[in-house]
Amino acid sequence: MSAEHIDGRRLRYQHRRPELLDAVVDYALSHGLAGLAMRPLAEAVGVSHGTLLHHFGTKEALLTEVTDALRQRLTDAAGVADSFGTLADLGLWWRRSTTADSLPVYRLLFEVFAQATREPERYERFLQQAMRDALGLMQLLVMAEGCPGEQAPLIASMIVAQARGLQLDLLATNDRERVDHTFSVFIDLIGHLRQSWTHEQPR
Q1: Cα–Cα distance, 42 to 23 (Å, whole number)
Q2: Which segments of 14-123 does DSSP mark as H helices, in order?
Q3: Of 34, 67, 121, 130, most Cβ neighbours within 10 A?
Q4: CB–CB of 111/32 below 8 Å?
């Protein structure tokens, strides 16, 4: 039997793939994705190169799973499933999703976004999911508040773009007070816009 088959580092994660993915995600959060290579990554998380390939196949497949896990961490941190049902919840979502613990996740996701603009085919799944999930959630939200169906994709796009722009601003400047206040002003503007949806509803 070859050394690869009895490698203790492989056996360590043989039945604990989620734990291995968490270790890879934590490494990526600390070191970024620039220049990421499978062999050094395997060494860093304490497994063999073969174990990493056994569980994830290719670097591209691994990166896809890493970004999926990062987006799920943000969703869990923001409590979207539990408390995000109206436009009034946007402020709560912002506070929960931009904590000090969440900012490294955004930093890594923005790194992926930047790379995806250079290689959109390679990151097609990430781009589709990142946009589909965010826009889909916001469209449902604004339509529940009375936004006309034909406007909903545009309003949803505006909210997503504003949030992502301010997330990037916060990462670059660390000016928490200004960025938080800007998002509050934006929520107020959306509230004024919502009044026009109410007025447009048929009597």
Answers
A1: 10
A2: 17-31, 38-45, 49-56, 59-78, 80-83, 90-97, 103-118
A3: 67
A4: yes
